[in-house]
Amino acid sequence: MTETSVPLPPPVNPTDPSDESRRLVIAVPLVTISWLVMLAILVMATFRISRWELAPGEAMPVSPRISFHASAGSGTPVPSRYPATNGIRFVTAFGGQLSALDSVLGWLDPHVQVDTYKEHFGEQTPTSSRHVGFQSMYGAKQIAEYVAMKRLGLDAKFEEGFVAVNELVCDGTPAPKSACKVLQVGDTIVKFDGTPTPTLTALAAALKGHAVGDEVTLTVVSYGDEPDSVSAQKKRTVQLMANPDDKSKPIIGFIPADTRTVKLPFDVNITTTDIGGPSAGLAFTLGLLDDLTPGNLMGRGRVAATGTMSPDESVGAIGALRQKAIAVRDAGATLFLVPAGQSADEVAAARSAAGTGVRIVQVATLGEALNALVANGGNPLPTK
């Protein structure tokens, strides 16, 4: 029997340089692509663009932020306090500048609103918008204290504050020396043609006798500087404009901030740190009433509220209702009091965002809010 020899294949070299090079050729592009993707994500996450978000914030208890103190020299004791164990919550929305990555994520999130600079700030700047927000929060707290004390039959009255620019009145083509061009939001007007103007009443008196088109000299202090600081005072020449409601009457051309302070028989402090805006007025008022009366004012479950408060107890509309409804839902609240002045579309969007676990009730006045709380099982306020 003859054996047939079969040639064997050449041995494979496990360290064949050609194989290694092929693997290296494949691996290098993959590593490069991975690094490029990571670098792109890093750049998008850190590079800020001209986009701002309006996103859900938080629903936070009011009671822990309230404190009462005896006024120096008043002789009036601080009233008894009944700290709320399940008190009212005020609601915020977040509105920071976005990175490129955050903008993409925001556009994909149905509950986040991504705005352009113009949409977010209008005619304001980020600095002036921040000032207006803080000034509005100050006014909201003052009004809440006034309304709550009046409701409880305590002595409360407003005193005029300084003259601050909250908004500029700009017509179609503002004159070069108009307030719209010369003043800035946040400015404090301390003198009018050399006459001190510590209050709006004093400013109105100084304006008498002037006509539309007159040029006057205003002494102003920029936002952040002390009004009493002479070194911080700057003079501005302003041409008076016509009152849009009565063309024969002159105005400087700005809407003043509410800088009134409320005088009470004792001191009240509501801590809000870096939170701005007037929308917590209703919640602050209810929080003060709850802390100064026995019993459970809120009733069943967690309760949140949003809405501005006026001295006549009317509740005003606010912004970002849909985003605030989400914050209320996430906080576990079951009742959300909102202004009656919100549009039907806004309320429908808020109800859809909050889900069936949150009951949204619209109120036009403080009285209606208190009635809604009684219907929720809360104790009515004691009669005066």
List keywords for this structure.
2 domains; Ribosomal Protein S5, domain 2; 384 residues; Pdz3 Domain
Describe the structure.
By secondary structure, this protein is an alpha+beta fold. It folds into two domains: 50-154 and 266-375, Ribosomal Protein S5, domain 2 (2-Layer Sandwich); 165-256, PDZ domain (Pdz3 Domain). The chain is 32% helix and 25% strand. It contains ten helices and 21 strands. It has helices at residues 17-46, 100-108, 117-121, 126-151, 179-182, 200-207, 281-291, 321-330, 344-354, 366-375; strands at 48-61, 66-70, 89-94, 97-99, 113-116, 157-159, 165-168, 188-192, 195-196, 215-221, 233-239, 241-243, 246-251, 254-256, 261-263, 266-270, 303-305, 308-309, 315-316, 335-339, 359-363. Strands 1, 3, 4, 5, 17, 20 and 21 form a seven-stranded mixed sheet that branches. A four-stranded antiparallel sheet has the order 9-8-10-11, covered by helices on one side. Strands 2-16 form a two-stranded antiparallel sheet. β12 and β13 form a beta hairpin. The longest helix has 30 residues, at 17-46. The radius of gyration is 31 Å and the shape is globular. It starts with 16 loop residues before the first helix and ends in a 9-residue tail after the last helix. The relative contact order is 0.16. The mean pLDDT is 86.
Question: How would you summarize the topology of this molecule?
Answer:
Layout: H1 17-46, E1 48-61, E2 66-70, E3 89-94, E4 97-99, H2 100-108, E5 113-116, H3 117-121, H4 126-151, E6 157-159, E7 165-168, H5 179-182, E8 188-192, E9 195-196, H6 200-207, E10 215-221, E11 233-239, E12 241-243, E13 246-251, E14 254-256, E15 261-263, E16 266-270, H7 281-291, E17 303-305, E18 308-309, E19 315-316, H8 321-330, E20 335-339, H9 344-354, E21 359-363, H10 366-375
Parallel strand pairs: 3-17, 17-20, 20-21
Antiparallel strand pairs: 1-3, 1-4, 1-5, 2-16, 6-15, 7-14, 8-9, 8-10, 10-11, 12-13, 18-19
Helix pairs in contact: 4-7, 8-9
